[in-house]
Amino acid sequence: AAERVALLRTRVRLRLAADADAARAEAQLAQARAAQEEPRAAATVAAQQLAVRLGQAEPDPAWLQPAPPPRLGAASFAAAPADLLRARPEIRHAEQAVLQAAGALGVARADLYPRLSLAGALTLALRLGSGATRGLLSAGPVIDMPLFDWGARRARAAAGSAQLAAAEDAYREAVLEGVAEVESALAALDAARAQAQRGDDALAAQRRADDAAATLRRLGLADGIARAEARIAALDAQSAALDAHAREAVAFIALYKALGGAPPPLAVAAR
Predict the structure, then answer these.
(1) What is the C-alpha to C-alpha distance for residues 186 and 197, in angstroms, rounded to an integer?
(2) What is the signed CA dihedral for 12, 17, 22, 25, rounded to 10 degrees?
(3) pLDDT of residue 260
């Protein structure tokens, strides 16, 4: 953009261009310089947050050095297995609640029926005068008959059944919500990957146009302004492609979180 402004100013001095063209180019240059401040500030904030999470007072200066951004490798997610959804904490909690309610209901139903058990007792008898003791052992079957508290036991069984039904409903709701969130994350990831691919295609086309403009410039068939315009378009396409890949990475992180931190169905390696 600065190169384009310099060329237009030269044209204005030679009366080959209007002042308005140079003014518009200067405004675009100011906008380009202003646009640089936001990612710089975001990088500084991200580095400081990373330092805090690593227990450091200051970020590592190497973190702010320019480097090629990482990209996700090619992978497809047709569907998420059910075992991955079970890693979600709310689903695990709901599943344990169902098991606990089922166990309590089983105990309550067992108390409705007579129960036969073996019981024993040891009695120590002390004989006065001699100080001698004598042990008496008794053992035999004991039958627990729910006669007088039958109503209370039936009420506990009914309450246990209701608690189990409520736990099953909560588990079903947690599973449905988890499936919906994972499906949404998968759809967002597919859309982000499609946008990233289109961004790469647009970048490749703009780079071909930039090479063609450079060739015409060397042959004297185009001026420097056309060359600068082609470079600006290629850099804009590169910035858009990087943003698209960043959104793809964020969408993959959202899918990882939706799966409760479980490994994804297919490994995605950084390239």
Answers:
(1) 17
(2) -140
(3) 83
Residue the block writes with tokens 């309450």: 159
d(CA 166, CA 246): 42
Residue 242, both tokens: 């990087």
188 is written with which tokens?
A: 């967002």
pLDDT per residue over 148-157, tens digit each?
676 787 888 8
Confidence band for 270, pLDDT divided at 50, 70 and 90: very low
pLDDT beyond 70 at 81: no
CB crowding 163-193: b at 16 or more within 10 Å, else e? bbeebeebbeebbeebeebbeebbebbeebb
| Residue owning tokens 């079970």 | 86
Cα–Cα distance measured from residue 237 to residue 163, given in angstroms and rounded to the nearest whole number: 59
Taking the whole predicted model, whether its pTM rises above 0.90 is answered as no
Best CA proximity match to 106, nearest among 148, 166, 163, 150: 163
CA distance 87 to 98: 16
Instruction: Read off the tokens for 249.
Output: 């990475």
What pLDDT does 269 receive?
42
- Tens digits of residue pLDDT in 173-210: 988 888 888 889 888 998 999 999 999 999 999 999 99
> What backbone phi and psi angles, to 5 degrees, belong to 133?
-115, 155
Nearest to 216 by CA among 229, 226, 202: 226
Q: What is the mean pLDDT of the chain?
A: 83
CA distance 271 to 269: 6
